[in-house]
Input
Amino acid sequence: MAHACLSRQCRHGLLACMLAVAGLAAVAPVAAAAEPGGVTVAVISLAGDERYASRRLERAYPGHPQGRPMDAARLAAEDAAVELQTAGLTLKVREVLLADAQALPKALNELKAAGVHHLVADLPVTEMNQLVRAAPAALGGAMVFNAGLDNDALRGDQCAAHLLHTFPSRQMLTDSLAQYLAARSWRKVLILQGPLPGDQLQGEALMRSARRYGLKITQTRPFKLSGDPRERDLSNTRLLTGEREHDVVAVMDSDGEFARMLPYATQWPRPVVGASGLMAAAWHPQWERNGGPQLSRRFQRLARRPMQSQDWAAWAAVKAVAAVLVDEPNAGIPRQLKRLRSGAVYLDGFKGPRLSFRPWDGQLRQPIFLSHIDGVVGLAPLDGVLHPTEVMDTLGVDEKESTCRARP
Output
């Protein structure tokens, strides 16, 4: 039909024919651009994840998630849409909610059939390790983002070449706190240590940070929440903090129930840091610089709750996928991993500096907020902290200290 129309136009003169040809040439690129390449990012979580139990969500423990991060992933896809469209690409997110760990193989088979290779994992540590082991073979190549776990082992002995971390490590969080305490000359620290495995790991990380930044641990005292009358003293905040020679109380409580009761309940007027009071976090909804208010407001409108660190990490993971796709639209997964882990691809995390991934453990370099429930009081790395090459590598395990041996 187009050819016949063109022939009729040409009967009326050469100029009409030239205009018609020019019109067809102008339409052709538009038609090509209307069929961009499509990429899907799967957000994988566990239905029975205790972090999202209704009781925990109702209590909203400081530093804990207040909802699943799917809305944050959707927001990131919307934020990147224009840039991706310019590169001839589209990106969408797909939620995968596992009934239990046994459902993972079937879910991976479905993702393979859909051509999905980019995964944002919001899983407990056991299921995370299962996913990391299974995904590359099951999908024919995979890129997995950890968007919710601070476990240092995932960046160390349990690392993988295809595993990237947008959530900060536990060591990054305690290093941030230690930098702030040292800068304030609050160097004498009383540690209240919980009984859970996560509490112990937090305490070990803080001890390493204390040695790194010159803090003194005055005492380490165990706490325990128990209904046994014989253990009542282990939850008595005034008895636990009766030792006077400390500047701050650091509470190591991965559960959060005890920590939330500690501020203003100590024997002496001392700041509380760690799992309550002054905390280190990847995101705070009251961050008021670098476009932070706009990001927080957009998320609030979409999810109807404030953005938390886990939400930001999921948002950053999808933004990282978009950034590497724009960097080399035709690159395969191995090439994308190399580009990201080489530090050659940057993303804007609305925290100030451009963010990049560390080659040695796949961790996203990022500033960490020092904050309380109502606002941000500092940003780590703090002014005056130095590093030979990259100051953000003063947070967490540096290259010479890393036990990760997996490289893409």
